[in-house]
Amino acid sequence: MSALHTRLDPSSEEFAGRRAAMLDRLTELETEHAKALAGGGEKYVERHRGRGKLPARERVELLLDPDTPFLELSPLAGWGSDYTVGGSLVAGIGVVAGVECLVTANDPTVRGGASNPWTLRKALRANEIAYENRLPCISLVESGGADLPSQKEVFIPGGALFRDITRLSEAGIPTVAVVFGNSTAGGAYIPGMSDHVIMVKERSKVFLGGPPLVKEATGEDADEEELGGAEMHATTSGLADYLALDEEDALRTARRVIARLNWRKADEGPRVGAVVRDPLYPEEDLLGVVPEDLKVPFDPREVIARLVDASEFDEFKPRYGPSLVTGWAKLHGYPLGILANAQGVLFSEEAQKAAQFIQLANQRDVPLLFLHNTTGYMVGTEYEQGGIVKHGSMMINAVSNSKVPHLSVLVGASYGAGHYGMCGRAYNPRFLFAWPSAKSAVMGPQQLAGVLSRVMRQSAAAKGRPFDEEADAGLRAMVEEQVESESLPMFLSGRLYDDGVIDPRDTRTVLGLCLSAIHTAPVQGARGGFGIFRM
Amino acid sequence: MITSVLVANRGEIARRVFRTCRELGLATVAVHSDADAEALHVRGADAAVRLPGTAPADTYLRRDLLVKAALDAGADAVHPGYGFLSENADFARAVIEAGLVWIGPPPEAIEAMAFKTRAKELMRAAGVPLLEPVPAGEADAGRLPLLVKASAGGGGRGMRVVRRLADLPDEIAAAQSEAAGAFGDGEVFVEPYLERARHVEVQVLADGEGTVWVLGTRDCSLQRRHQKVVEEAPAPGLDEERTEALHRAAEEAARAVGYRSAGTVEFLVPTGDGGPYFLEMNTRLQVEHPVTECVHRVDLVAEQVRIAEGRSLDAAGPPPAQGHAVEARLYAEDPARGWQPQTGEVLHLNVPDATEGTGGHRHPDASTPVLPWRVGEHSGLRLDTGVTAGSEIGTAYDPMLAKVIAWAPERRDAVRLLADALARARIHGPATNRELLVRSLRHPEFTSGAFDTGFYERHLASLTEELVGAREDRRTAALAAALADAAARTGAPEGPGRPPAVRIGGWRNVPSQPQVKTYRAEPAGEEPEEVEVRYRLTRQGLLADAHPAVRLLSAAPDGVCLELDGVRREFAVARYGERIHVDSAAGSYAFTALPRLPEPEPERRPGSLVAPMPGTVVRVADGLVVGDRVAAGQPLLWLEAMKMEHEVAAPVSGVLTVLDVEPGRQVEMGAVLAVVDE
Lengths: 535, 678
Fold this sequence. Notes:
The complex is a heterodimer.
Chain A: H1 13-38, H2 42-50, H3 56-63, E1 70-72, E2 89-96, E3 99-106, H4 117-133, E4 137-143, H5 151-170, E5 175-183, H6 189-193, E6 196-200, H7 211-218, H8 224-228, H9 230-237, E7 242-244, H10 247-259, H11 301-304, E8 314-316, E9 324-331, E10 334-341, E11 345-346, H12 348-364, E12 368-374, E13 376-377, H13 381-385, H14 388-401, E14 406-415, H15 416-421, E15 431-434, E16 439-441, H16 445-462, H17 469-487, H18 489-494, H19 507-518
Parallel strand pairs in A: 3-4, 4-5, 5-6, 6-7, 10-12, 11-13, 12-14, 14-15, 14-16
Antiparallel strand pairs in A: 1-2, 2-3, 8-9, 9-10
Chain B: E1 4-7, H1 11-24, E2 27-33, H2 40-43, E3 47-51, H3 63-72, E4 77-79, H4 89-97, E5 101-102, H5 107-114, H6 116-125, E6 146-150, E7 160-162, H7 168-183, E8 188-192, E9 197-207, E10 212-224, E11 227-233, H8 240-256, E12 260-270, E13 277-282, H9 289-296, H10 300-308, E14 324-331, E15 333-334, E16 340-341, E17 344-345, E18 348-350, E19 380-385, E20 392-393, E21 400-408, H11 411-424, E22 426-428, H12 434-441, H13 444-447, H14 455-464, H15 470-491, E23 515-521, E24 529-538, E25 541-544, E26 550-556, E27 559-564, E28 567-576, E29 579-584, E30 587-594, E31 608-610, E32 615-620, E33 629-630, E34 635-641, E35 644-649, E36 654-659, E37 666-667, E38 672-677
């Protein structure tokens, strides 16, 4: 075993500067998270409580086992949109009656818990996570259905939500719906499609059409309780399996349902009795690793040394393709292969090394972690002639067809095809998180603005027009600013391009939770099974 | 020569006698009721004989079964312990007639002292000073207060103080009924009640051949409901003259009845002038005998055995008294709630540095003193108990858990040592009187030695009221319980039901609220309190609502170390299901972890009468039937639990609609016994 050494000097000015910048970004992040926590605001939260109802997060907290973690997913959904941060939905992975579950809860204080486009994308992402990792699903339902003003974006794709529930069920992944309030029209299919349904006396309302709609459609004067009340469903329609007396009783019942699932993880944990050792270096140091200016490279081993058990890392091919660090480690006891960018640029050697390393991990059934800080694959005549496209493709081929679970953390830059090769969002890592220092785009904002300017200058020259330097400077600045803002993690997180922006100090914890969740499903790599590697 | 001893008793006294038997090389035979089948006294014996049933009348009071048990098990002697048949002359006779050795006084001596009225006559004739009984017809207001006592009684049972003349007939009737139930004899008598007096007794040992050892005095004034709680030897603050008078009277009493074996002569000593007055003679070993053993370094049980074998006492007298010994009786009871007996399983009982003892006997025949328990040169602690983890404290027998005895050269050291030992003891299970004992032992009136039998009447309220800061300490203890619980969950081994994620603890990437745990505390003398603990374990350490100055130094499932205002404090935590005990230098706390999501309670009809404790229905109000109109507070039925009768009264005025009891029925705590509809 080789424990990593550190060259980081927490007393240096450089470190202090990086740390201060990171803390500022964390403060901003906290401000944005606070918006999600506030939901519909004090007034609506109070009104909700006044009805004797618990806010979504309190429902979740009561559902979870005490003193167990909850990894909230996509908390910034909808950031930068017209909708409330958080997508009027709480989603996350937590432990219920000793079982890791994917828990979602509508936030009824945000426009009655109605689903807007971001709610939908967040819910679909949650279902995807549950499906891939075989996590039992618990939905704490209280939603007025689709957000009508945005129905055009919600209605058609929203059908996938109900399809997902039954597909989960088909795959043997338990689904539990606890209906706290409205779950009407399309929402009625949430309990309808679920394996287990709990309704709350005098609170749950589950029907395809409410009294006004029924009156309109058939002229019948229907009573709401008769039409879709919990007691009716528990005694007459049979849609409810359990009738809870109140919200607490419903949550208690949900916990009993989970306790009786006879649920077993494919892998109960890393080697019974194994001692998990903490890294040798403090997690606090992670605040001072990444430079403010992403053009300045940093050694990803400083990050790895603060993530993996006992800081032990057996590097693979350390002298070949040194711009990509690869190697084996354990994290919270789980074996892990790590790929981390060192100098930003990926050359042919790095790409080939990555392809080989990914194949090895697949043969050994070892999950992979990608630590992003890449500006992309190298450009230039020498490199094109050297086959950089072929080699980059090999790496992307390997990443695409790899069957072991992938985890991605955007630590610094994640630009261009490098983002793909390092298992960006489109390459379906099981989980993808970003540090506040991360940026992701087709290329760096300055480069992008520069390229744009150069193309325009060439175009002007070709047409023999004079080039307006002043206008160009203005345009460059504007483009740079726009790309910069659209490369930032909160923006990307708002669009569900990651599963959350995390405090660098939480990275080991987050990855440990992900690995624990991932091992609910069997971990098996590809044996062969890759596309044609263009040699 | 005796080779094998049957102890016709249970619990700590059976074990106490067995210990001496072991030291003397005697085989041991236990008897047990069905409730005691797994009791500690049974497990430690060489052989055990079952007495079918649970009620004392079916088991430990069955002379025939006990004699048969001794014969069946090959015992050649019987020791009766205390209580049960220890002062039953017929039993002594039956044992002797069966050809067994009776380790106790002659049946005639027992008989002579059995009935207090007769004993008094005998003592008056022998010139022993006493309080003259008040004939029933002569009781008048001027002679109040009066004490009604069962003639055949002992241990305070059937004893009632009367302060209003009008109450006398009822109290006599109640005492008669209680005495008839407890002793099979309803005879009671009335005597003056001394408000301010001390209960002082003298231990005697007599060999029946003319030698009577007087082993000094014991003060047993700290009593609750006429049952002793704290005893010590020698009685403090008695001048030589009174001590001499007591010794003389005791010896005279023993000689007057031709006594043999160990016995105790009890006296009342007024705090002012007068006395001592003879009360009664207990013709058996007493609960509090260990204090005398400690002071005199005599094994009273061993002496009883030797005397039973016909050996004589050294005419030179007993070993001289050395130092001072204090005993506290640890009961499963709630002093603040009318001494209500508590039931349940003993989960843990440990008194640090205390060892079980036989008194550290030194017999003239023995060349070296045998000190099997730790009586050092400076001090020692002894623990006599019949229970251990797993023992069930039920309603059938006495709720005493243990006796803790401290010896030291001086009284103040012994008292301090005992208080500290009790305070440090880890006692998990039913609520006990431990805190009361500690506070009693530290009360200035007790430490000064100027106390009397009215101690608890005067001080119970202040001794059971919450101390300043107790609430805060309790909340801190609850926090420790919550943190130990978190550590237990986080550190549990991985496997089904415990995914590896759990090791990370209550972490949140988007924290919205703290961990919340609720505990119910049942502090003595206070209403049950729900303590809500709200905390988060963050990168910065513990953040606990309402505990801004607390730092968490370490947490493990069995102990938490907190820094409180700069001072490091250890909290030992033990969890048994939902029951949690926290022991710290500041105090000991019991909590019940309340479920976060409780099951909805079954609706109980208003006006329900609920059994306040497990017990047996002894009687229903005369002529009471469903449909009767009853008034709020009207007693409807009586439960017996722990030898006490508890009245169950109508909670509201109205019509009795349900009456679901009959005498003799066992009921669980919380059982609905009757319903009154308003």
